[in-house]
């Protein structure tokens, strides 16, 4: 596998703290890159000036179950590499090219993104943030949506960011996709829930009361 050398990243763990039962972001590991040009949606913008905002919730690709390797350090399998390439091609074909990435800092999450860079060249220069807390919170009941929103609000820009991709783990990713859309969503490995909503700002659309439209769930053929 050829690593995408331009992918903006830092391997250090982001810190997090618990307040009661809620995880709170303290720091995102990040670096900035020039914003991408994103082609306009075929949907017409509403007359009130609200902007179409898109959210991709992607589960990491299939990973190896190697004995003696801790869960955080598991690597993606050959099947996972093919899955990541396929879902990247599906996103590219649909014009859903991310201009901001938030991800768990697990090894299999980073390798999933490396494989996707081979297909979506622009993905290699987006602003990417890796959170240790996104790895941790996905295992907890019902907290992932709120934590994703908290992390996004730390770094997102209303003007530059129109298509955001969050990459992580079940069970949290299925729960979050279901809560955002108000419908049950199943995410197999390397599957992506495509969500969209018109709003005046990301702050508005990331409120708990906001209802997103589930456009499609992309599932690799392998």
UniProtKB/TrEMBL annotation:
Family matches, as SUPFAM superfamilies: Phosphoglycerate mutase-like (SSF53254)
One Pfam entry name: His_Phos_1
Basic and acidic residues composition bias: residue spans: 63-81
Region (Disordered): 63-83
Gene3D superfamilies on file: Phosphoglycerate mutase-like
Name listed for the protein in its UniProt record: Uncharacterized protein
Organism annotation: Pleodorina starrii
Positions of substrate binding: 108
């Amino acid at each position: 596998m050829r690593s995408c050398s331009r992918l903006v990243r830092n391997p250090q763990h982001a810190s997090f703290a618990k307040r009661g039962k809620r995880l709170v972001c303290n720091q995102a590991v990040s670096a900035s890159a020039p914003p991408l040009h994103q082609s306009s949606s075929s949907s017409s913008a509403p007359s009130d000036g609200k902007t179409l905002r898109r959210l991709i919730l992607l589960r990491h690709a299939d990973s190896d179950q190697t004995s003696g390797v801790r869960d955080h350090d598991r690597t993606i399998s050959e099947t996972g590499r093919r899955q990541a390439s396929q879902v990247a091609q599906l996103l590219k074909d649909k014009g859903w090219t991310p201009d901001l990435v938030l991800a768990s800092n697990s090894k299999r999450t980073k390798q999933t993104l490396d494989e996707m860079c081979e297909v979506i060249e622009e993905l290699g220069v987006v602003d990417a943030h890796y959170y240790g807390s996104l790895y941790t919170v996905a295992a907890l009941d019902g907290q992932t949506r709120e934590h994703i929103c908290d992390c996004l609000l730390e770094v997102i820009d209303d003007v530059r960011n129109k298509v955001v991709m969050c990459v992580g783990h079940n069970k949290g990713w299925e729960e979050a996709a279901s809560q955002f859309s108000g419908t049950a969503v199943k995410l197999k490995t390397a599957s992506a829930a495509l969500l969209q909503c018109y709003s005046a700002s990301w702050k508005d659309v990331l409120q708990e009361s906001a209802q997103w439209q589930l456009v499609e769930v992309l599932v690799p053929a392998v």
